[in-house]
Amino acid sequence: MADSFELIVTRKEPVVVSPASETPKGLHYLSNLDQNIAIIVKTVYYFKSNLRSNEESYQVIKKSLSEVLVHYYPAAGRLTISPEGKIAVDCTAEGVVVVEAEANCGIEMIKKAITEIDRPETLEKLVYDVPDARSILEIPPVVVQNIRYQREREENAEKVCYSYSLSTK
């Protein structure tokens, strides 16, 4: 039965979360290492909560991002090619792409599919990819997907599990 497992992640429309207040504008040049190795790093973080519903969690992450982007404003910009031909962050305050999603199973089944069944393609469904992006310049520096998993029973207590996947440059 475990071998027939298929993760289905249903996504809502992406929204853009902008900084809560005005931020500096201009170009921030990347390091020499980043100029030569411009890659996308995808990570998944998850936690269980008895305190928040999915809607609350989603609203908290959007509000927190908005406030954090004021201080880490390059994350709300876009990658570009500078007049010197180098990759830079154009601090435009356009914002971070955030997607709310729901999975058809609990996190334990996903962990099992990734490790025991050797189904690494499961990981790809946990991270949102910007549709039709043909290059790294067409993807915002930070993309967040907030997934709500089905409830799992642990020690006779129902817990809701969430994950936040981040794609960063």
Offer a few descriptive terms.
seven-stranded mixed beta sheet; 22% helix; CAT-like_dom_sf; three-stranded antiparallel beta sheet; Omega-hydroxypalmitate O-feruloyl transferase-like; alpha+beta; globular; Plant_acyltransferase; 169 residues
Structure description:
The chain is an alpha+beta fold. The protein has a domain of 98 residues. Helices cover 22% and strands 34% of the residues. It is built from 4 helices and 10 strands, in the order βββαβαβββααβββ. Strands 1, 2, 4, 7, 8, 9 and 10 form a 7-stranded mixed sheet that branches. A hairpin with a 2-residue loop joins β9 and β10. The chain is globular and about 50 Å long.
**What structural class results from the helix and strand content?**
alpha+beta
Helix content: 10-25%
Q: Which percent range describes the beta-strand content?
A: 25-35%
Number of strands: 10
Family: Belongs to the plant acyltransferase family.
Protein name: Omega-hydroxypalmitate O-feruloyl transferase-like
Organism: Camelina sativa
Pfam family, one: Transferase
Short summary:
This is Omega-hydroxypalmitate O-feruloyl transferase-like. The protein is α+β, with helices and mostly antiparallel strands and 169 residues long.
Secondary-structure blueprint:
Elements: E1 9-11, E2 15-17, E3 26-29, H1 32-36, E4 41-49, H2 54-71, E5 78-81, E6 87-91, E7 96-103, H3 107-115, H4 121-125, E8 142-148, E9 152-154, E10 157-168
Parallel strand pairs: 7-8
Antiparallel strand pairs: 1-7, 2-7, 3-6, 4-10, 5-6, 8-10, 9-10
